Amino acid sequence: MIRRTVLALAGLMMATSAPVFAQAADLKVGFVYVGPVGDFGWSYQHDQGRQAIEAEFGDRVETTYVESVPEGPDAERVIRQLAASGHGLIFTTSFGYMDPTLKIAKMFPNVRFEHATGYKQAPNVATYSARFYEGRHVIGTIAGLMTKTNKIGYIASVPIPEVVRGINAATLAARAINPDIITQVIWVNSWYDPGKEADAAKALMSNGADVIMQHTDSPAALQAAENAGVLAFGQASNMIQFAPNAQLTAIEDNWAPYYVERTRAVLDGSWESGDSWKGIAAGEVKMSEYTNMPDDVKAAAEKAAADVASGAVHPFTGPIKDRDGAERIAAGAVADDGMMLGMDWFVEGVEGDLPK
Amino acid sequence: MENFIISMIIAATPLLLAAIGELVTERSGVLNLGVEGMMLMGAVMAFAVANSTGSTPLAILAGAGAGAAMALIFSIIVLSLMANQAATGLALTIFGVGASGLIGQGFVGVALEPLSKLSVPFLSDSTALGRILLNHDIMVYLALALAAGVAWFLYNTRGGLALRAVGDNHESGHALGYNVIAIRYMATLFGGACAGLGGAYLSLAYTPMWAENMTAGRGWIALALVVFATWRPWRLVAGAYLFAAVTQLQFYGQDWGLPVASQFLAMAPYVATILALVIISRDVNLTKANAPACIGRPFRAER
Questions:
Q1: Considering only Cβ atoms within 10 Å of each terminal Cβ, which end of chain B, N or C, has fewer?
Q2: What CATH number is associated with residue B26?
Q3: ipTM of predicted complex
Q4: Nearest-CA distance from A281 to chain B in Å?
C-alpha cells in the first residue's frame, strides 16, 4: 500500500508539473478571493494587485482568479483545483484559508503558496500581510481631532487579532489626543454584508458616535454616514465617491508591489518562503487624500503617517493597560510582532464585548 | 429608541414587499422558491436604470419589471410545461444570483443618490411619532399600501375569491369556469414584480449601491414569513416588523450594552422565525386548514 501511495503521488506530481512546460506562458498565477471582486474593498484590491502582475509581465504570466470562495471545505477544493491545473504560484487572500492552504501545499510541494494575513509557514508557503494598524493609528489621530461627541463608532467584522489590533491602534491614537474618547464596537460577524454594515452604522450614530470606522468590506457604512451628516473613513479602497462629504480618508491596501515582486521571484527562481509584513513605509498601506478636514488636522495626519513610516512613532508604545487595568506594555516599550499577532484584549476606552 | 423603530421600519420594507407578492402567489397554489433571485434581478436592474437615466420612478418600474420577467420564465416552466415547482424555483434563484452578478459587474463602485424622504413640513420633525412614522421614502408607504391592497383584494373582491378558490381546490375552480392557469400566471407575475420591488428598495434606498448578493438571504426570510403568517396579509405585516425588530436588535443591543453575545444576537432573528413556525405548526390540522390546499401541485385540465 505504501508503494501504491508513493507511485500515485509521483504520478500526481509529474502530472501537475508537466502542464507548466506545456503552456505558452512561463507561469500561471492563481488567486482565491473570499469575497466578490465587486466588493470595492478587500477582494477588489487584491484583484488590482493581480492586474498589476498582468500589466508588468504581459505574456510571460497568465493569471486566474476564483472569487467568493467561503472559508472552509470549499476553499480546499478550489485551492486543490488551482494547484492541480498547473499554477505555479497561488495567492490565498483570507485568514480562514490557512489550514486548507497548508494541507494542499503538502500535497503539491512544487507549487508555491502565499497566504494573506496568516501566521503558519511551510517550505512552499509564505505568509504576507500589511501593517494596517499603522493606517489605524493615522485615522485614530484624525478622529481624535475631529470628534465633538468624543465617541467613535467602530464596525468590526470577526473577533480575530487583526481586527482587535486595528481597534486598539485607533483608540490609542485618538485617546493620545483626547483621553476622554470612547470607541464603541459593534460586531457584524461578517466581512461583507452591506445591509448589516449600514444598519450597524445607523445604530452607532443614533447612540452618539460622530466618527465611524469600519473593518468590513463595503462602502455601505460610509453612505449611511454621509446621509446622516457624520464623518467616516473608507476601508481598503478610496471610497470618496460614496461619501464626498463624509470621508476623511481611507486606508488603502496596495498589494501591487508585493505581488509583482513575488511573481518576479518565482520567474527568477529566487522565491523563498517567509513572512512579509510591510506598512506605510513600503507603500503597502496608503492613506487616501485627506478631505473634509481643516488644514491643521490634515497636517497632523500627514505627520502621523510620516512618523509611523519612518519608525519615529510606534502605534503600540507603552505604557498600555487593557480594560481590566492590567499593564500589557511597560512604559517606554513597544509591542513586538508576536504580541501584535496574538492580540486578544482591548485597551482602555473600548466599549463592546470581545467574544472569545 | 426612536432610531431603533425607524431602522426597524426601513429594514422591514424589502421583506414586506417580497413576502406580500409571495403570499399572493402561494394563495393561488404556486410555490415560488425563486424569490431571492428575483429580488436580486430587481435590485440590479433598478440600480442600472437609476444610474443611466437618473429617474427614480423609472428605476422602481424597472425593478418590478425585472422581477416579473424572471417570474414569467418561472411561470412558463411550471404552469405550461408543468415542471416541479420547488426545483424550478431553486434553479431560478441560482440563475438570478449569477445573472445579477454578471449584469452588475459594470456598476461596482458606483454611488447613487438615495431615495428622497417624504416629509410633512411641521409634523415630521416636531413629535417623536412624527419622526418615526412620517419621514420615510415612498417605498415604505408603498409596501404598507400594497399589503392593505392585497388584504382587501383577497377578501373583499370576486377576483380574490377566485384566486383563493384556485389555490384551495383547482379542480373545483376549473369546474366553476375559472381559468386556473391564467389566474396562476397573473398571481406569479405579481409575486415576481413585488420581489423585484423588494430588491429595488435595497439598491435604491437601503444601501444605494450595487453589491453582489446584496439581498443576503432576505428572499428566503420572505418565504418563511409567508408561512409564519399563515398566508394572511396582516399577520405578514406583523411578522415582517417583528423579524426586522429582532434583526435590528443585533446592532442596537450591542450599542445598549445588552449582556448577550453578538453572535447570539445575529442568530436571534432566524431562531425567532423557527420558533414562530414551530408554534404555528404544532397542530397539524390547523396548518392544513390554513395553507392553500393545492400549493405546489401542477394543474392539468381534465375536461
A1: C
A2: 1.10.3470
A3: 0.80
A4: 28
